[in-house]
Amino acid sequence: MELPKDYKRDGRAPVPVDPRISAVMSRIRSKNTGPEMAMRAALGASGIRGYRLQYTKAPGKPDIAFVGRKVAVFVHGCFWHGCPNCQPRRPKTHKKFWAEKLDRNAARDKRNVRALRRAGWRVITVWDCRLKKNTETQVRRVHKALGQPRR
């Protein structure tokens, strides 16, 4: 894989050892990720509708927000948010950079959850590994938080 000719580094991350890594990393999305899309599809299949995506008026901009019921759903990638279940390995190169970055992500997640709860929201964190393992369980958690019987 080769970097596009117009590709410019922004200086926030160290230069990867292999330029292909940079090309792959630049394609990683922050919204509408695979796990988010899978969760939304599962919610729709179970009859849950009426949510907002990346709701900017709530702390932390939840991936899925049921505004009227004050239920926020974050769909977290295990690597980027430090999953406590599967505990993904951290990169072996640029260890200091990655430790700081991933620790900041986890700290930000905790701050966002606290702020939402203080504002009266119920918060559900769906981890990618758990979503893959048993999607129905994750959908059930949302049904429960919304106070809806499952279809």
Brief rundown of the structure:
With 151 residues, the chain is of the alpha+beta class. The chain is built from 6 helices and 4 strands. The chain has a 4-stranded mixed β-sheet with strand order 1-2-3-4, sandwiched between helices.
Structure, explained:
- The chain is globular and about 50 Å long.
- The longest helix has 24 residues, at 95-118.
- It has one domain: VSR Endonuclease (Endonuclease, Chain A, 3-Layer(aba) Sandwich), CATH 3.40.960.10.
- The chain has six helices and four strands, in the order H-H-E-E-E-H-H-E-H-H.
- The chain is an alpha+beta fold and 151 residues long.
- The chain has a four-stranded mixed β-sheet with strand order 1-2-3-4, sandwiched between helices.
- The termini are far apart.
